[in-house]
Amino acid sequence: MWTTSSTPATGGVLWLVCECECASCWRRSDPCVCSVLQASVRDQKKLLVENGKLKKDIEQLRTELQDKQRRRTAKALLSPAPPPPPSSSAHTSPVPSPAGETPAPPPSSRDHRERRGMRRRGERKGRPTCDSLFLGAEPRVDVSRLDLRVGRILSVRRHPVAEVMTVQQVEVGEVAPRTVVSKPVGETPLEEGGLVVLLCNVKARKVRGVVSQARLLCCSAPGDCREPLAPPPGSSPGDRITVLNYPGEPDRVLQARDRIWELLQPDLQVDSRGVANYNGHGFEVRGKGLCRAPSLTNAVIG
Question: Which of left, alpha, beta for 103 (phi over 0: left; psi -120 to 50: alpha)?
Answer without folding.
Answer: beta
